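Researcher: I'd like a candidate sequence for this fold, 233 residues long. If you have to choose between options at a position, lean toward the conservative one.
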């Protein structure tokens, strides 16, 4: 008897398309066009059962190799090529976190009862500012070369992607790119800027990406290899 694989269904832009992905936590996400019947979706998932199983096992192995960050202090944070040691200071009477960089340390001051999520958000905010400042020159240069004008470049907290670009010209980058080598952040910037000219990931899109950044595929592979280590933050 075939084992039923639970999955979440999201809409696909193309009415007849089906795509499947497995998140690092093992959840299966299926994107289906509005013309695809439910029976076809189930058959699609069942037909990819072996691949889903292998991917889940690979993610589980990476989770053991790269455990989640504890955000308790002492963690090494490789921010824009410089490794900073996280130092958590608990100060009576403090209601808002304060983040300060000094002598190889990223100090986060919080109240006595602040949980680890508050510390993580403070680090995320610091990384977001650093990332935007770091990528701004490359974003401006590549946007000019591509003939596009992003309405806004901002930072978000994605769990399974590195960036996005909307039809209205808003480019969003994953804050964890601040913890990646700078050339990988530049690749994501180029990738999303190219989406302002070409939607989807067809051949025309990838030709544009490589024309803009000749070693884009090498950087893409490097980002894929680094993903498990980066997503634990």
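Model: Candidate sequence:
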């Amino acid at each position: 008897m075939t084992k039923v694989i639970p999955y979440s269904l999201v809409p696909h832009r193309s009415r007849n398309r089906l795509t499947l992905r497995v998140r690092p936590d093992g959840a299966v996400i299926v994107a289906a066009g509005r013309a695809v019947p439910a029976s076809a979706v189930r058959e699609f998932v069942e037909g990819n059962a072996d691949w889903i199983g292998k991917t889940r096992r690979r993610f589980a192995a990476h989770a053991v190799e790269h455990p989640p960050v504890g955000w308790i202090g002492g963690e090494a944070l490789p921010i824009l090529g410089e490794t900073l040691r996280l130092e958590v200071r608990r100060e009576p009477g403090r209601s808002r976190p304060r983040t300060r960089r000094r002598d190889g340390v990223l100090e986060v001051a919080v109240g006595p009862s602040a949980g680890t999520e508050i510390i993580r958000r403070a680090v995320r905010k610091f990384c977001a500012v650093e990332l935007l400042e770091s990528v701004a020159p490359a974003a401006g240069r590549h946007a000019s070369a591509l003939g596009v004008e992003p309405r806004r470049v901002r930072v978000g907290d994605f769990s399974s992607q590195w960036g996005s670009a909307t039809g209205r010209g808003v480019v969003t980058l994953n804050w964890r790119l601040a913890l990646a080598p700078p050339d990988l952040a530049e690749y994501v910037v180029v990738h999303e800027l190219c989406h302002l000219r070409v939607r989807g990931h067809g051949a025309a899109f990838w030709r544009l990406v490589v024309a803009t950044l000749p070693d884009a595929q090498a950087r893409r592979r490097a980002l894929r290899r680094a993903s498990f280590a980066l997503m634990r933050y």
